[in-house]
Amino acid sequence: MNDADSPDDRPLTPRPSAPHRAVDEGGDPACWLDQVCDACGRIRERPGSAVCEHCGAPTPTPPPTPTGNPSGPAPSAPRRRDRDEEGRARNARPRDGLGRPLPYGSPGVARQPEGVPRTPAESLTEAQRLLDDGMPFHAHEVLEDAWKAAPEAERELWRGLAQLAVGLTHAARGNTAGGATLLDRGATAIAPYAETAPYGIDITGLMAWAQELTGRLTGSGAVPAAETAPRLRRRET
């Protein structure tokens, strides 16, 4: 029996013929990564605001598009929203190894391609590889792809896994408040799946990991991403 044939890889419900488009439904995003204030670590309730309503820190904005006159003043018009080749909104700013935005034009670590079709087993394997390599931000992108394509009965499962990866991302950045917030949200989202543990996911173990890591974040600095990464699936016995 190969990995794809394992009973743990059977979906909870038949998969829909067309992938779910998260952008069409509104509501909460999968991971809340862009809603966390880098200054205070709290969730911004008004993400479009120029400042964080909790601490007053300015919201980072991309630089204006340069004009043909290098000696003239920078234009004041806002930059258009970045989009991918299919016209979907996708931030094009380069990122470092933990997904922190860098200035436009800077060298960065390549992001995961969006919209790659994967089976649940493939998504978990790829996300685990990235977690083990100390790249939880990139793992979250794989898990968010799985969330967008998941049937309704599994959507909170994949959302929660993506949120746990983002929680580790913030913890590795030293943003303890943001890390704790996302770890709690992720653990809460996956909790209802503890009894069935679809695809062999170690729901109980992940919840315990999130609780333990949250406790360690109180008053501490950044944690090492690779050494702190959890196991997504139960180990074979």
UniProtKB/TrEMBL annotation:
Bias (Basic and acidic residues): 79-98
Transmembrane segments: none
Family annotation (SUPFAM superfamilies): TTHA0068-like
UniProt biased composition (Pro residues): 59-76
Region (Disordered): 1-31, 50-122
Domain of life: Bacteria
Protein name: DUF309 domain-containing protein
Species annotation: Streptomyces platensis
